[in-house]
Write a structure and sequence with these properties.
This is Helix-turn-helix domain-containing protein. The chain has about 170 residues and is mainly alpha-helical. It contains 7 helices and 2 strands, in the order H-H-H-H-H-H-E-E-H.
């Protein structure tokens, strides 16, 4: 039978849920407030935070790495903030930033890639972070092993009858 009224037929379209913000974005805004959420956020591996000393990241190098991560939006697209931008944000001179990046490069965490713009010449360097990614992955494995060992030792200590007794003094 033909629909003679101007009402549309019923739809069997199932509405998609969760087209709004992700749970992580909502959690971020719950912690930091909606204004901070509008500016954005950067995901940083916990290993990088916990293992900064083991990665030889002193405070200036760590701050520079965080700035590079803030500009690294896509896996296959290297970040390319200028030394001046980094320097302003971390309260160092551009020359100090250059020296610390050279140290990061010497340590195999970062590789500078020269960029040129047609008709404009040299522009800001891009930074390959694959060395940092590899080191963080390796350190993550070590941290997970250490956590598993700690868990096993704790479980062994909690078992009855396995307590070591002090030997009587002679």
């Amino acid at each position: 039978m033909a629909n003679t009224t101007n009402t549309p037929p019923e739809s069997n379209v199932i509405p998609l849920r969760g087209l709004g913000k992700s749970a992580r974005a909502r959690g971020f805004e719950e912690k930091w407030g909606p204004m901070a959420g509008k500016v954005g956020f950067t995901m940083i591996p916990t290993t990088l935070l916990r293992g900064a000393a083991r990665l030889q990241l002193d405070p200036p190098k760590f701050a520079i790495v965080l700035q590079l991560l803030e500009h690294w939006w896509e896996r296959d697209r290297d970040p390319y903030p200028s030394k001046e931008t980094i320097a302003t944000r971390v309260k160092l001179s551009p020359r100090q930033v250059q020296r610390h990046i050279a140290l990061l490069e010497k340590e195999g965490l970062v590789q500078r890639l020269e960029r040129r713009a047609p008709g404009r010449g040299k522009t800001s360097n891009a930074y390959d972070l694959s060395g940092l990614v590899k080191r963080v992955a390796a350190l993550s494995g070590e941290l997970l092993e250490e956590a598993a060992d700690t868990k096993r030792r704790r479980a062994a200590l909690e078992k009855p009858g396995l307590r070591k007794r002090a030997k009587p003094k002679a």
